[in-house]
Amino acid sequence: MIRKILFIFFFVILTLQNSKAQELVQFSGVIVTNDSLTPVPYVNILIKNTGRGTVSDFFGFFSFVAHEKDTIEFSVIGYKKALFIIPDSLNENRYSLIQMLSRDTVLLQEAVIYPWPSKEQFKEAFLNLQLPDDDLARARRNLARAEMRERAEKMAMDGSMNQKMALQQEASRLYSAGQLPENNLLNPLAWAAFVKAWKNGDFRRRSERE
What are the structural domains of the chain? Predict the structure, then answer.
């Protein structure tokens, strides 16, 4: 009778220990960098030696079910792998973690590609380069002042010029807010600039100027 009671007693103890070792844990946390505490998204989180795990979201958060004493492996491109063992002395069936990852920087050597086998051969070929006469004439024609002035007159405004004009218009609107807008018909400086431009022939047609 005593042996039977002892056998039942030890069996219950072993069962409790086995259930304790296999207790499930809701393992959650967030993954950040160790230098700036910035969340690391899409980190592979796996229970080592198993095929179970999850992937962190865009904000570095993760949550999945594991066991106590499980070894968790964190891996992502650009960072060193990290391991964490879930403790077996938890008072609750959940555990939270802030896992930091170190950057894994790989510095590659500079690769310089030359069209010639050596710098000396490239220098010699470049100095002895003979441009065709038609290409040289075309370049000189495109760089002529008259040609460049005509291209500049036909060229549309770029982003910086449009921004400058928009700011000037906004400044003019705010300057005359609550009053009549400025009228250059009564501005003597504007009339002086107009007369000067008229004398210089700025208002002539392009064909007449040429």
Answer: 2-101 (2.60.40.1120)
